[in-house]
Design goal:
Blueprint: H1 2-20, E1 23-33, H2 42-49, E2 59-69, E3 74-90, E4 94-99, E5 102-107, E6 118-134, E7 144-165, E8 171-175, E9 179-210, E10 215-225, E11 244-254
Antiparallel strand pairs: 1-2, 1-11, 2-3, 3-6, 4-5, 5-9, 6-7, 7-9, 8-9, 9-10, 10-11
Length: 255
């Protein structure tokens, strides 16, 4: 209930900004998630077992912002960004074989001619942020440096879809040459934590460069802090690290 109330309050705050904003910004950023974690991190488990890589989740994100001037050096920035990445991979060390009408993962080292064991790993987030922006030299200069930070509500989702190996349920395969070989069952799985809402924060620094009377080029570096807890499908995993940095370029239109 408290989260819904905060969303409503943020929405009400955006209305006057939209009506009287001094700057409107369209921006494009390249987001690099931190993807850190220990042994119980979903990031780590996917990267260790699958052909997926950290670089697969580095991608562009679109954003919009309204900036409301408070005085010569301070302003409030209301922003909305969109990030989504869905990549498919396969288990690096296992092959899929069907034994007595049941699918199993066998070590690819010894059984290299089975099928690939595939699934997709999808991550998305939509941060709605309110930030305080500081322009220490004011705005009537050739280049306008700035810095700031703020808080945000992050709408995020994580999904796994496809074949997954159940490493908690080992079987023993009797091989004439190798002897006892440990194998694992493979099941089709759809696991999703969708439409989740968490609180995070961000810091940024950049510069605005005039291109015309009412237009400036906006270049900045941003870092967000977000590590929400799983609640449903991935309960038992450690908090999911959605922190990361973005290199952002935008076009500002001054009202």
């Amino acid at each position: 209930m408290n989260k819904k109330l905060v969303i409503v309050l943020i929405g009400l705050m955006l209305l006057p900004a939209a009506a009287s904003a001094d700057i409107f910004t369209f921006r494009y950023g390249y987001f690099v998630p931190r993807t850190s974690g220990g042994e119980d991190s979903l990031w780590k488990i996917e990267f260790d077992n699958m052909t997926l890589k950290k670089s697969d989740y580095q991608t562009g994100m679109l954003g919009l912002a309204y900036e409301l001037f408070l005085n010569r050096q301070f302003s409030l920035v209301f922003s909305l960004d969109f990030y989504s990445r869905d990549k498919a991979g396969y288990y690096k060390d296992w092959s899929l074989y069907t034994i007595e009408d049941m699918d199993f993962a066998l070590p690819a080292e010894y059984y290299p001619y089975g099928d690939l064991i595939l699934h997709s790993f999808s991550v998305s987030q939509t941060p709605l942020q309110v930030s305080l922006k500081v322009t220490p030299l004011g705005r009537q200069v050739r280049f306008v440096p700035y810095f700031g930070g703020g808080l945000g509500i992050y709408f995020w989702s994580v999904k796994l879809s496809g074949d997954m190996i159940d490493f908690s349920d080992p079987y023993i395969l009797e091989d004439e040459q190798l002897g006892e070989v440990t194998i694992y069952p493979v099941y089709y799985t759809y696991a999703s934590e969708s439409k989740r809402v968490s609180f995070g924060s961000n810091v940024f620094a950049g510069v605005m460069i005039p291109l015309g009377r009412q237009v400036t080029l906006d270049l900045n570096f941003r870092y967000q802090f977000l590590k929400p807890a799983f609640r449903d499908a991935f309960e038992g995993f450690e908090n999911f690290d959605l922190s990361g940095y973005a290199l952002v370029a935008g076009i500002n239109y001054w009202f």
